[in-house]
Amino acid sequence: MALAAMVLGIVAVASMPLAPLLTPASVLAGVVGLVLGLMAMRAARRSPATHAGRGQAIAGVVLSAFALVATVIVVLFFISVSEAVV
């Protein structure tokens, strides 16, 4: 789970510059990465011997949260710019 969270966080951040085109993919990757990261952190805290990868889980949570916030900001920016033009 931790590795999947980190990979999805990276995908979400990488798709941010293409926000108008890939907004659903970025948001989906961010949400799933955030959920998987939180689940992996919880599992690593409960039984650290069997669930390694707490650092990867933290990276996944941070990247996913950053991607979600940044995507929302970019979308709001594009909406405000498009309203100003019209």
Structure report:
This protein is mainly alpha-helical and 86 residues long. It has one domain (2-85). The chain is 85% helix and 0% strand. The protein has helices at 2-14, 19-46, 54-85. The model has no long low-confidence stretch (mean pLDDT 87).
Unreliably modeled segments: none
Q: Helix- and strand-based class? A: mainly alpha
Shape: elongated
| Rg, nearest Å | 15 Å
Beta-strand proportion: under 5%
Q: What series of H and E elements makes up the topology? A: HHH
Oligomer: single chain
The major β-sheet equals: none
* Average predicted local confidence, pLDDT: 87
How many distinct beta strands? Answer: 0
Quickly count the domains. Answer: 1
Spatial separation of the terminal alpha carbons: 45 Å
What share of the residues lie within helices?
A: over 70%
Please count the helical segments.
Answer: 3
